[in-house]
Amino acid sequence: ENSQSSWMNPFDDLIQHLLTSTDTNNTPTIQKMIKEDIYLRTLDAIHDEIVNTTTNSTRTTAPMMMMNDTNIKDVIRGLSVAFTNQITGESKVTPTLPVQDTVSARLISSLISLLQAYRPYCNEDESNNIQQQQQNNTTRLLLKMGQSIAVQSLNMLSKFISWVDLSLVLNDVILSYLWDCLHSAGIGGDDVGQEEEADGNTKLSIAASKCFNELLSRGMEGCGRKIDLLVRLNLFQELLACQEQDGGLTTEGRKRRGVDLKTVDATHIEAVIAVAELVNLAGIELLSEWDDNFLSCSSSNMDQVLLSTVSLLDQMMKSFFLCLSYDDIDVSGAVVPLALRLTVTMGKELDKCKAADNNQDDSNNIQFLSSLPFSAFNHLPRLLSTIYIQMRYPADFEFDFEEDEDAEEELYRAELRKFYRRVVSLYPDLCLSFLGNTLSSLSTPLSTTPTSDMEASLRLLYHHCEGIRPPPGTKTILRNETFRSLLVALHSSDVSHHSHREVLMLYYDVATRYSSLLKDHPQLMPSLLDSMSGVRGLQHPHPKVRSRSCYLLLKLVKDMGQNMRPYVETAVGGIQSLISNPTAFPIQPDDTLYLFETIGLLLGKTGLSVPDQRRYLTAVMTPHVQSINNVLQSPNLRRDPDEYGTILSSSVAALAYLSKGFTRQTPPEIQEVLFETVKICLAVLQSLPEHEAVRNKCMVLLQRMIQCLKEGVLPSMPSFLALLIEHCNAEDVLDVSQLLNQLCAKFGPIAVPALDAAALPFFAKMPFSGNHNFQQ
To answer: Could you say which of 232, 271, 325, 500 has the lowest number of CB atoms within 10 Å?
Structure first.
């Protein structure tokens, strides 16, 4: 393996025995192909062993092994260690022979030879000719093996590119082969969708993209070296030249040369994805060079390197927009990191504005940025438009995010929204103008606007505040009259009558997030509440809308506070009728708790008079308590404690949530009504004390009543504590201790009579009660 090994020329021996043919005709045979396949697999295994250390976790923790791997690579590259720094441990290597005479040169040459020999097997026309000559099993096997060897050779070349001398790869012959392979991708379509179904040409195209990726990923020291590489590769120009052809097919039906980034399915999707990933990497590397070598410098003098950079940047942006606007989330998503990287450049452009002593006025900044030889800001309008278009879901999208495909669609759009937030933080005025233009361009009435357009526009509106500075963005943006006017116009429209559930939920999200506006425009509240509590919200046929409306109505009531006073009677009546009729509009238990808490806040936090609070609270509690009594009197209660225990625990939890609207200064008239919850709670606990959920929810209610009833709760505590302590287990004994602690902290010595009988039984239940020292 290395210079100290007894096997001095392992790679040359592999080439001689596996690749050198004694057949002067050099006709491909199965035996010959098998030997070549073994050669490629051997190289792949060696690479994984000595280069790709992630495949062997033991090597990452074995310095001696890693040092040996480095020595092997140095021998292959024709390098030797000249000296080692004893302090840093870094070694300096020097070449022992010319690059073209090294083992790595012979390995690269062998891979190119294999690619040359079997490249025709991947060509559609050539492979068809071969099949037509002799349609038998041997011919088909030869064709399949030939395609495999060609693809393996190129994949193996991509792995060597990451660490061999670049001069072995950066020559006209190899680059021409790489471009020929990349441009040869097969046609896409519904019948060809997955990578494993790709033809040989498509696989070669993907492998060629990997080679270019490895070239661009190489670390390079020195200003402008990565720019020189990009110029040498002519990457963007090669890709753009393919897009200048009209359409994806010729008049004869043959595929045009090149990866088509304009026409969907004109090129196999896996090849397009690979090219998009290549554009993404090349663009990020190019922007880094631009930022470091121009934007970070005080001088604006343009030398040849920077002129080349500007030209490359223009080509890169054209390629980038082709990929970003492609109608496939895997292609478009591949360049989203580049879009995010553009925001970094935009930020540095603003820093350069500051360095130029501008007064930070937007018009002056824009004028300065327009004077730069390249400015990411100049592409921002098109970026925003493209991002908005891509944010729109397909017309047949089901919005079922539990499905893998729908979840991928949502993740993709989450990344687009991240870009929008970053841009808003940099250019809030321009983004607000874009938002206004987007909303105003929607077809009217909004109730009939296409779902994809309406949903994407509401998304921009909802997330706009997340990029606003200073935080919190919601409060800051609501000081902007332009933004406020957009919200008022939205609330004044008929968007709440839209037929699609996602539009309704998103509209309610927007209304709740920017609810402070409604305090200044109370005339907008009735229609919003009517929508959220009616057939377009709490009573919507779809359970997801009902569930979301329960939560958002609670959030809205919390935010609005006493501004909800004029709507208490209507809201409480509507919610109560919904709760009392669960069969018509089934609501999940957690959502029911939201509704009870909403009622409590409406009664306790909106400035109602005490008599009104008592009247409404009694009206809400009476049917609920009666329903609990009906369950307690059921003859099946003891026969099916699990089912009935779940029902009763949810009912007790609802009473606890209802009490959240009342503060520690609860009037005596309200305390009297709330005390009924303590009575019914005790009855529930006495019926099913062994049910863990029942015990848990009873303790939750008691903790609330300690705040609301104060000392009035103490007479009932001995009965509760006796049952809770007797039946508690290792799971809820700590909950009991927290209840005891709250009683002590709240009432002090006054709680002694209520706790006296519970102390010893509780200590006996503790996990350490069997400890001899504790008993003493």
So the answer is: 232
